[in-house]
Amino acid sequence: MLASIKPLIILEPYMEKPTKKKRNICCIGAGYVGGPTMTMIASKCSEIKITVVDINKNRIDSWNSADLTKLPIYEPGLAEILSKVRNKNLFFSNDVKGAISKADIIFLSVNTPTKIKGIGKGKASNLEYLENSVREIAKYSKGHTIIVEKSTVPVKTAETIELLLNSSCLDNVNNEKKTYSVISNPEFLAEGSAIKDLEKPDRVLIGGKDQNAVKEIKELYLSWVSSEKILTTNLWSSELSKLTANAFLAQRVSSINTISAICEKTGANIAEVSRAIGTDQRIGKNFLNAGPGFGGSCFKKDILSLVYLCIYYRLDEVAKYWENVIAINNWQQDRISRLIIGNLFGTIENKKIAILGFAFKADTNDTRESPAIKISKNLLQEGAKLSIYDPKVEEEKINFELNSCFDDVACSIDKSKWKKFDSIEDTLKGADAVVLLTEWEEFKYLPWSNLFKLLRKPAWIFDTRNILDPNDFCSEGINLWINGIGEYSN
Ligand code: UDX
Ligand code: ADP
After folding, report:
1. N or C terminus of the chain: which is more exposed, having fewer CB within 10 Å?
2. What is d(CA 153, CA 127) in angstroms, rounded to the nearest whole number?
3. What per-residue confidence (pLDDT) applies to 268?
């Protein structure tokens, strides 16, 4: 007898589908977050019109430039997607008022740097730009508007935004009814891989009280992100998760950098140690590359914001714990500067040092908090002359960063002490040392045997990213130092 065949019921997994509403989005802030994020939403939701506004006219002109190499930010894959949607459903404009008045949803993507004066100086986030844009929204918005916090903000910022919006309603001379829902939807994109991160996010986080507004924002993402990857939380969890995610990532970099110093003293090899510990799934293999220290606009700022929060709630020991992650980062930059000077016989006065890479990491033209800034300033302070090469960073930006004030390094730098070059050969000509600071792909395969001729012997190559092949360096008068290995001898 044949066994009775049960009818096969195929259960389709429940798929939430986006409802394709015609929406008008305004994004305030056309920076590293606003630009790529809105480009991705525009490319995935053709029924939505998006206007990205900024008070900086040059920035908007660059976003509108016909020449795609002139975009204000460099991000692999961005120009290709942008060219398909720009002036179709994605627009860049300086008309902040006009875009706000037409919007149903407004993304806040303005900068929230660390305060440099007043209460909370050096730790708290400066919410001046955020407050200014919220006041503009209060003035020009119409009807009901969903406000989305995209920029990283301290926990409880949504409360401040609501307070500002609600009290501004009291000034409303026309007596129009304006209402708002504030949502937190932090960005998790990393520069250099922003397009990939936006297209295939690990998760999308949406926090808010108004469940209808949460649903609206979720529907936007459902156009290309599956619903199980969209996490909805309360507002404060969403705001705190963003700070925490960055603090945890930064902590890993600081941890591995302390181990790289131990490797150099003991003969262990940091790449091998990273591989060995990274295979433990509980630790994982990512974010374990030793380097010159973490940079970028988020890590330091977000840890400082977390520290300020701890101080505010009298969690002093917790504040100290997180502050140490930054202290180790500064130590790593100073440690590298000191060992460069030490290996060049303790003096670098008038010696020429070539700096390869100024961006805070590869595949971006962003220099904010780049370890190259502090290391360069330390070397300049010791009397060195620098020749600098970076494939994507403009001279103007390097000049701005080298003249910035922080810690105990000199604020302004004499322009005759450094020069930016457009070719690696020109950068290396006559140099006593080469310091590799950014892991650009092109630095991994340089024709070293030809380049050695350009250097003054005995010369040193300092590989702070651990990306060079030591076999390329068996040459008379050439010394190689690799982060986490130390002086390399064949
Ligand atoms: C970070 C977070 O990754 C992202 O999720 C968040 O939204 C914004 O902040 P980003 O600053 O763009 O992104 O760069 P990230 O790739 O995180 O690197 C930060 C710094 O850590 C860089 O200076 C990088 O060189 C350094 N780093 C990273 C290491 O030194 N070693 C590693 O293994 C990884
Ligand atoms: P992020 O990395 O967070 O994107 P950026 O500094 O690259 O930071 O971008 C933030 C942008 O926000 C800047 O271009 C700045 O001019 C813009 N901005 C700041 N305040 C306002 C405002 N009130 N209205 C419009 N744009 C603003």
Report:
1. N
2. 8
3. 96
Counting from 1 in the atom list of ligand 2, the atom nearest the Cα of 59 is 14
On whether the CB atoms of residues 42 and 85 are closer than 8 A, the answer is: yes
Instruction: Name residue, tokens 């302390």.
Output: 258
**Catalytic residue (choose from 26, 27, 45, 298):** 298
- Is the C-beta atom of 30 inside 6 A of ligand 2? yes
Please report, in angstroms and rounded to a whole number, the separation of the first and last CA atoms in the chain: 76
What is this structure's pTM?
0.93
Output the DSSP codes for 459-483. Answer: EEEEETTS-S-GGGG--TTEEEEET
Alpha carbon distance 191, 267 (integer Å): 34
Token reading at 322? 């997180």
Low-confidence spans in the chain with pLDDT less than 50: 1-13
Q: Is 446 exposed, middle or buried (0-12, 13-18, 19+ CB in 10 A)?
A: middle
Per-residue confidence (pLDDT) for residue 173, from 0 to 100: 56
326-335 per-position pLDDT tens digit: 999 999 999 9
| CA–centroid distance, residue 373 to ligand 2 (Å) | 22
DSSP symbol at 427: H
* Residue of 397, 389, 396, 387 whose CA lies nearest to 366: 397
pLDDT score of 474: 86
Instruction: Name which residue sits closest to atom 31 of ligand 1, judged by CA.
Output: 289
Give 210's contacts (C-beta < 8 A, 6+ positions apart).
181, 183
CA of 407 to the centre of ligand 1 (A): 22
Q: Which of 394, 389, 395, 393 is nearest to 451 (CA)?
A: 389
Q: Is 298 a catalytic residue?
A: yes
Token pair, residue 303, equals: 């840890």
Q: What's the pLDDT tens digit per position in 331-386?
A: 999 999 999 999 999 999 999 999 999 999 999 999 999 999 999 999 999 999 99
36 C-beta closer than 6 A to ligand 2: no
Q: Residue 182 and residue 149: Cα distance in Å, rounded?
A: 8
For residue 296 and ligand 2, the question of a CB distance below 6 A is answered with: no
